[in-house]
Amino acid sequence: MGMQDSGRSWLNRLWCGTAVLGIGASLWAFWLTYDDSRDRAASEREIAQACAGLVSGEDVMDLRGGTVRAATDGAITPEAPAPGWCQVYGVPGPGRSEGLLTLSVRTSADGDPLHTVGDEVSREPFTYDFGEGDPTRRADRPDGRPLGDGSLGSYTDRSVTVRAECAAGTSDEGPGLLTVTARADYDDVSGEDLSRLASLAHGATERAAAALSCETRLPELPDRLDPPSRSLGAADTADGSCAWYGRHPDRAEEPRLPDRALDLPTAPRAAEEYCLLAMSPDRVRSVPLKHEDAADYGNSAVTHSPWWLRTASYFGADARSVGRDDLRDEYRALAPGTAGVHRSGVLWASSVCDGEPALHTLTLSYTYDGLLAELRKPLFEAYVTDITDRRGCTDVKLPRESDYRD
After folding, report:
1. Which letter does DSSP use for residue 153 in this model?
2. Quick check: 36 and 27 in contact, CB under 8 A?
3. pLDDT tens digits, residue range 369-388?
4. Taking a C-beta distance cutoff of 8 angstroms, is the pair 269, 151 a contact?
5. Distances (CA, A) of 22 to 8, 10, 31, 33
6. pTM across the whole model
């Protein structure tokens, strides 16, 4: 009997202990959940404050599969959100952070142009590649493809830019053009996150427009955005923004001309349109080089100084805010109605499309410009002829013959 009582007592103590441990574990789990919820709520408020209320902290925190804690940095104020930016970092643990989002707000009244052309470091499409020796297989800084019909803005595989044209006369101090870019600061952005970035940029544009007295009406976003590829394909099969080059008569016979293209879709109302062309390693090696440094010159194009060119056209309000880089982070405006060739490897022409100004540009990488020499003129004129015919533009102004010699 005593043995049975003793056994029963031990079992009771065991069950009580287990119950206490279970209650303790439940309380601990509840506390962690409460603590996480409290931290997330605080982070959401911090994001809203750092980004001047332009984005929802809750939506930002849902990026990258969701995060509990975040830190912020930036310079946006509710009264004057442009030019401005804010940055959000996920905080997975003490002393650790990971990129989440950068939101930037720009207007055509900022002083610096919204669009820049030239071979400055921040615009180089390829990263140096000392390992595999094929830097032009993939663009590290791809240009944007149109959102819908193009009037709303553009997107890449990790960012979305929404543009808003402000109605004339709505404010003496309001800008003519407003752009908001939401960029994911991490790799392998999913289609779900890309669509979330688009929603963040769209909402932020509406709020920034209201703060800046910019009267505008934004089109709806596409239902879904799938991350586009950065890989360059064969230039002769391009059927979008680079289709003009596939039809160029000298493309196949002239070894100095590119054989790769990052072809982007075209859109009838796109405010900007790009085509990136580049030389593959095999194409570089086929170029006959005669000067004494030919071997080193060709090798550098295969490893770390690739040969590339980019065409870019801007329409309407965007054409009024284009600049050419002029070293030391300074820019020289390219005015609608003008045309020219600059020794930095920038060529530009102008036209009028649907009653609005348009600028058409070609940029050659620094090491590639001298190699093309006499090929620049027919190449550029073929591009301008194609895009102005396709967009129904008139009053085309091209560089003079003397501009190429100067």
Report:
1. E
2. no
3. 888 989 999 999 999 999 99
4. yes
5. 21, 18, 14, 16
6. 0.87
